[in-house]
Amino acid sequence: MDWKIFFASFGAIFFAELADKTQLVGIGMSAKSGKPLAVWLGSISAYIIVTAISVLIGATLGRYVKPEIIKYTGAALFIVIGILMFAGKL
Asked: What digits encode the pLDDT tens for the residues 55-68?
């Protein structure tokens, strides 16, 4: 286990996900349903599946595409999505 990579990915994901809309959905669902354990288990299950898919895609892309291209493509997509959200298209 490469602990440096583990903690780097933990920190990046933790701070990126902190107080985003998925957290607000969890708060809302827990408050509305009154069933925090069910909301927590559903949220954790969804995060596990989404993370597994992302890691598999990243590992596959990493074999065929240079990491710099992946990084710049991701940054460009964030910019495009931000512009579309700002323009009211998303």
From this structure: 999 899 999 999 89
